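Whiteboard transcription, Tuesday session. T.W. wrote the C-alpha cells on the left side:
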C-alpha cells in the first residue's frame, strides 16, 4: 500500500512539472488576460494617444482695433504661433511693416476656446484707413471667365489671372504715368470684357491711383 502511494505522488509531481514548463500558446498571460498595449509597443516608441486631443487650448480674445504688431505679440503670448494677415480692402497689399497696420477682423471669433495649433488670420488696413464693413475678397477667375475688375487693385486683378497671361496696364489719365506699385492703382477699364471666356488672349487694363476718379 505504501509503495502505491509513493508512486502516485511521484507521477503527480512529474505531471505538474511538465505543465508548468509548457509555454502558453493562446496569446494570453498566465492570469488569462490579454497582453497590455505597453508590452506590444516597441522599445523607445511611445504608445499612441487616441483621446482625440489636439494640444493645448487657449481662449482667443478680440484683436479688432489693435495695431497688427501688438495683436501678433498678444497672440503669441497666448501660445498661438500660426499667424497670417491680409489686406482687408482686397487690394492684395503686403503687410511689410506690421506697426503701420491695424486689425479690422479675425478668422476666429473672440472668446472662442481652441487649440493653440489653430492658425489665426487678421484682416488689416493701414492706420490712416477706415475698416470696411466686411473683408473684401480678392477677385477670382473661377470658371474660366473674365471677372469684373473695375475698382479692384491692378495687383489683385493680375493675381486672379493665370501667371502666364500677357497683361498690359496703362494710366487712364492724360498724364501717361508708369504703373509701378500695382496695389496702389485701381482698374478703370478692361479688355476682354467681364464674362468673356479666357483662352490665353492678352489682357489690357487702364487704371488710376486709389483716391482718383476714373475718366
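and on the right, the sequence the group agreed on:
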Amino acid at each position: 500500500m505504501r509503495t502505491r502511494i509513493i508512486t502516485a505522488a511521484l507521477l503527480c509531481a512529474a505531471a505538474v512539472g511538465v505543465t508548468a514548463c509548457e509555454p502558453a500558446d493562446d496569446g494570453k498571460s498566465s492570469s488569462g488576460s490579454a497582453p497590455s498595449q505597453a508590452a506590444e509597443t516597441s522599445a523607445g516608441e511611445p504608445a499612441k494617444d487616441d483621446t482625440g486631443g489636439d494640444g493645448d487650448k487657449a481662449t482667443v480674445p478680440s484683436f479688432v482695433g489693435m495695431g497688427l504688431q501688438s495683436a501678433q505679440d498678444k497672440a503669441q503670448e497666448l501660445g498661438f504661433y500660426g499667424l497670417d494677415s491680409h489686406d482687408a480692402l482686397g487690394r492684395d497689399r503686403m503687410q511689410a511693416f506690421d506697426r503701420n497696420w491695424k486689425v479690422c477682423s479675425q478668422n476666429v471669433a473672440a472668446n472662442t476656446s481652441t487649440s493653440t495649433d489653430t492658425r489665426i488670420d487678421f484682416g488689416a488696413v493701414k492706420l490712416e484707413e477706415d475698416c470696411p464693413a466686411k473683408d473684401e475678397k480678392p477677385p477670382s477667375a473661377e470658371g474660366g471667365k473674365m471677372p469684373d475688375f473695375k475698382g479692384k487693385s491692378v495687383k489683385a486683378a493680375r493675381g486672379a489671372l493665370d501667371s502666364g497671361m500677357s497683361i498690359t496696364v496703362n494710366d487712364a489719365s492724360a498724364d501717361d504715368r508708369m504703373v509701378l506699385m500695382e496695389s496702389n492703382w485701381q482698374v478703370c477699364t478692361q479688355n476682354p470684357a467681364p464674362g468673356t471666356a479666357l483662352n490665353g488672349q492678352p489682357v489690357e487694363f487702364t487704371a488710376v491711383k486709389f483716391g482718383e476718379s476714373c475718366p
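Someone added at the bottom: Residues 168 and 204 are 5 Å apart (CA to CA).
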